[in-house]
């Protein structure tokens, strides 16, 4: 505060100087809350493990498709030999 009777006093700057970086939000989540929400989203997306029954069925279908491809390739080679290509 400036003393009007004392010529040696000055008005001090009382302005607020912001700190460095981005200001904090009032409703910011803690690290634990962010992690909890992340795990909940992952769980909803269904990125967990595959049931053993579904995996075994997929493997059987893959093996069946591979045998069919091999049979078709053999038939194609036989036809190419017959046709002379």
From TrEMBL:
Q: Which Pfam families match?
A: AT_hook
State if Coiled coil is listed as a keyword. yes
Q: Which residues form a coiled coil?
A: 55-82
- What's a Gene Ontology MF term here? DNA binding
Q: Which UniProt keywords apply?
A: Coiled coil
- Protein's name in the database: Uncharacterized protein
Organism of this sequence: Dyella soli
The record lists the lineage as:
Bacteria, Pseudomonadati, Pseudomonadota, Gammaproteobacteria, Lysobacterales
